Amino acid sequence: WDRNERLFQEDDDDDDDSCSDYGSRDKSGTILGRIVPDRNVLFPDTFQTNHLLFYERFKAYQDYILADCKASEVKEFTAEYLEKVLEPSGWQAIWRTNVFEVLVEVVDVEYSTLKAVVRLSEPFLCDSHVSTFTLECMQELLELKKHQLPVQELWVVFDESGEFDQTALAIEHVRFFYQHIWRSWDEEDEDDFDYFVRCVEPRLRLHYDILEDRVPSGLIADYHNLLSQCEVLYRKFVNLRSGISSSDSDSEAENVSMVEGLKLYDEIEHLKQKLKLIENPLLRYVFGYQKHTGLQAKGSRPMGTKITHVVSSTIMASLLQSLLREKLCPETCDEELEIQFHSDPLTAVSACYEGDTVIICPGHYVVDGMFCIADSIELEGYGLPDDVVIEKRGKGDNFVDCTGANIRLSSLKLVQHDAVEGILSVHHGKTTLENCVLQCETTGVTVRTSAELLMKNSDLYGAKGAGVEIYPGSTCTLLDNGIHHCKEGILIKDFLDEHYDSPKITMVNNVIHNNEGYGVVLVKPTVSSDVKDIAAKNSEDLGNTQTIQSNGETENVEDLGHPELHECAMDELELHERAEISEQTEGNCEIANELVATSVKKSQMHKKRLSELGITEADDNIMSQEMFVSIVGNQFKRNGKGSFGTFLF
After folding, report:
1. How many helices (H) and strands (E) does the chain have?
2. DSSP reduced 3-state for 613
3. At what angle do helices 252-279 and 201-211 cross, to 10 degrees?
4. What 3 state SS string does 378-398 have?
5. Cα distance between residue 442 and residue 457, in whole Å
6. Which parts of 332-387 fold into alpha helices (H)?
7. What angle, rounded to 10 degrees, do the helices at 165-176 and 74-85 form?
8. d(CA 156, CA 386)
9. Where are the alpha helices (DSSP H) in 332-438?
10. In sequence order, what are the residues at sequence separation of 6 or more whose Cβ sits closer than 8 angstroms to the Cβ of residue 106?
């Protein structure tokens, strides 16, 4: 963003106060491009304004249009901006709707309503999908609208003089804002002076992240679906509220409507929170999203047979003899083994049914697609991992998606380039990763809710996000691995909510080193004061100390509640700095302590909610939460911020 900063600096030093995106409008000639109509119509060219860069839109909204206005003042601030830069008359535009396009001439602007007063241009030019829009029909339509049209429905006709550049840009900013930034419910949200920071900037960043392929396609679909749902529910809520407010009766029907309105309100708030998680760039990275692959498992073959698939670019006699001796003719095999040969690992995996095995011979395989493994199969490299390399080329969401009940990958090297999501995602079932090398570019391995990962004797490096992401409700066992040169080593996500079980984590003898941030990061919400009060009140019942096994010795976990920083402005995650402990091994105890403390807080929240419903539980055993199984013998070396940290949201 150096370019962005330089632009702002240059404008700060400029004495011109013309509210211009491109400097003074005294310059001769336009600096904007033109769009030539792609159909055989006589429409004139229009200004090219829809390809503005992120920083150009950011600057316009922050510096010239919205500044520090409230959500309720957006229209007023926008009107003031238009009054400064919009030519009040003398320019032509194309009025575009979903049904027709017609050339009009602007004779005045009603700034307060963000509308332009127009008349039909001469000669009459209209392009429509239907033939009913004659000159008379269009004149009648304009009269019904009192000749006033929203400025965002107008595309300014191209003019080489430069006189109407600012008019075209101003209308583009208004159009983009109401298409991509503004939400119907914004005015009713917290009406404070941070509307730009709270809503405009994150939505603008999301829009450009989507344009630049930095957001998974599934998450984009989820976002648009949530937006549509929220819009529908909000319209129903507004209509219901209007009906109640216009009624003076205190009837049973009105009471039912009020209950329905409260239910709608809760649903809308729930959807809005989901939207905010996706809109916020940092939350979007930390939480990811619950993607559910649509791939269905094939199950067993109709005849019940299992096939061994051999992948090799070329089959030499010596290689075949070795395979037959070591892999294809085991002494314990009582029945004939069916073998299929492939030159591409992706084709081999696609041909698999439940129980099949894929043996990949030494070689460098380049694949353009994604591995979607929905059946319990085994992928085994025949040789050392560095000899069996599978490299992904081309942009895509994931590299390897696992949903099978029991999948095993061994002795492979996976190399990922230019992806949106991680190198391997376990969505359902159990995946075992043994003796593998993973060269990542985005996130490394992701263990989703209800999924299980066993990763041992493997090497993972290069992730721009976390090397391993562990979601709530998952089971993750990491044994004797190297996780290094990532942004963060391991990211543990705990939503501290009764709807999400704690992840079950085993970390033994891993070497987590040379990561940019922390070796291990725990993501959790701040805890409300009432929950902390209950935790303190019940601390005698729970006991202030528990013993855990760390580095082969019994350690006391004193003070299960840790001091926390509660600075959560603008819904951003704040980094909670931990006191530096020994970089080498003492991080094991610190991680275990924090996971126990989080389990206690979750337990207290759950008990509080149950008690409000008149339900009590007898289980006060902290360790029954099983947040972790064992955290022993891990080494933390040269991580940029230390062995362990906490993100609070």
Report:
1. 15, 37
2. coil
3. 60
4. EEEECCCHHHEEEEECCCECC
5. 21
6. 345-350
7. 170
8. 59
9. 345-350
10. 87, 89, 90, 91, 92, 93, 116, 117, 118, 154
Average the pLDDT over 278-303 and give the result.
72
- Judge whether 578 and 640 are in contact, CB under 8 Å: no
Tens digit of each residue's pLDDT (9 = 90 or more) over 627-641: 557 888 999 999 998
From 360, 314, 311, 357, select the one nearest 338 (Cα to Cα).
357
- More confidently predicted of 315 and 426: 426
Residue that the structure tokens 């007023």 belong to: 76
Q: Given this model, what pLDDT does residue 13 score? A: 42
212 versus 624: the higher-pLDDT residue is 212
User: Tell me, what amino acid is at 367?
Assistant: V
Cα–Cα distance measured from residue 79 to residue 110, given in angstroms and rounded to the nearest whole number: 9
Give the relative orientation of helices 217-245 and 252-279 as an angle to the nearest 10 degrees. Answer: 150
- Within 13 A of 258's CA, how many CA atoms are on the CB side? 11
| Beta strands 91-96; 154-156: pairing state | antiparallel
User: What pLDDT does residue 378 have?
Assistant: 96
pLDDT: is 514 or 549 the higher one? 514
Listing DSSP states for 248-296 in one string gives: ----HHHHHHHHHHHHHHHHHHHHHHHHHHHHSHHHHHHH-------PP
> CA 280, CA 272: separation in Å to the nearest integer?
12
In the chain, the N- to C-terminal Cα span, in Å, equals 25
**Residue-wise pLDDT tens digits, 85-141:** 999 999 999 999 888 899 999 999 999 999 999 999 988 888 887 767 788 888 999
Q: Quick one: tokens of 332?
A: 């314990």
Beta bridge partners of 357: 308, 378
d(CA 346, CA 332): 29
Structure tokens at 153: 């429905």
| 3-state secondary structure (DSSP) of residue 490 | strand
β strands within 457-610, DSSP E: 459-461, 466-470, 475-479, 482-484, 488-493, 504-508, 511-513, 518-524, 545-550, 553-558, 574-576
Of 427-431, 531-535, 561-565, 630-634, the poorest mean pLDDT is in: 561-565
Angle, helices 587-612 vs 529-537, to 10°: value is 100
CA proximity to 320, closest of 381, 349, 378, 361: 361
Confidence at residue 249, expressed as pLDDT on a 0 to 100 scale: 58
